[in-house]
Amino acid sequence: MRVALMVTCVNDAMFPDTGKAVVRLLRRLGVDVEFPAAQTCCAQPMVNTGYLDEAVPVVRTFVDAFAGYDAVVTPSGSCAGSARHQHGLVARRSGDAGLAAAVAETSPKVYELTEFLVDVLGVVDVGAYFPHTVTYHPTCHSLRMLGVGDRPRRLLENVRGLRLVDLPQAEQCCGFGGTFAVKNADTSVAMGADKARHVRGTGAEVLVAGDNSCLMHVGGVLSRQQAGVRVVHLAEVLASTEEGVGGPSGHPQVERAREEQR
Asked: Pfam families per the record (predicted)?
């Protein structure tokens, strides 16, 4: 099976450890994952803002970059949702039959990470170790557009040392929403504050989600509140082992935070 990593723009620019974690995790599970250097944006920002014509060359670059792979794995429900649901809309609007055919070939092969682990590889125990109290936020696109369901929780429940606590009103949006956070800043901040309040109420050390854009938003609120709650992408939790990155403590970011607080 030829598998490609779609790292996403936000991870490439701001959270490279997440992409590295996906590679470590998949290789540990016996998957020889590749990184196509020609990949760029999934086109979601353009589509969400109404620039569908401008999204055409971006979608064309996407299908060219990932042509020939059996699966395209991404640590983002948001970007997976864009590839699976928005690319077809863009291609049909363009009137380019060749592009529409390429999208129809590529889009069904795009998987959010937990979908690939559970549905394709058939695993829920990936051999991870993360000895921390964790609460999980199901991001909107993974929950509503992709329907990942309980796959992330099943994976977290099988992480050794991890204590998973329920997040009240978990299915409520965190308020980020890409350009929504810019165009409707006051509403976005209020929604983020609600989410942060529920996170604090769990007593968890770590907030986990499958999209770094959402973690960036809620994590910013938690940081300004000096809540002492860290945000970590699900891929980084699943990639953590006793022997691997982060050592026995499970994750370097969490341990650095603990040292700072001592």
From this structure: CCG (PF02754)
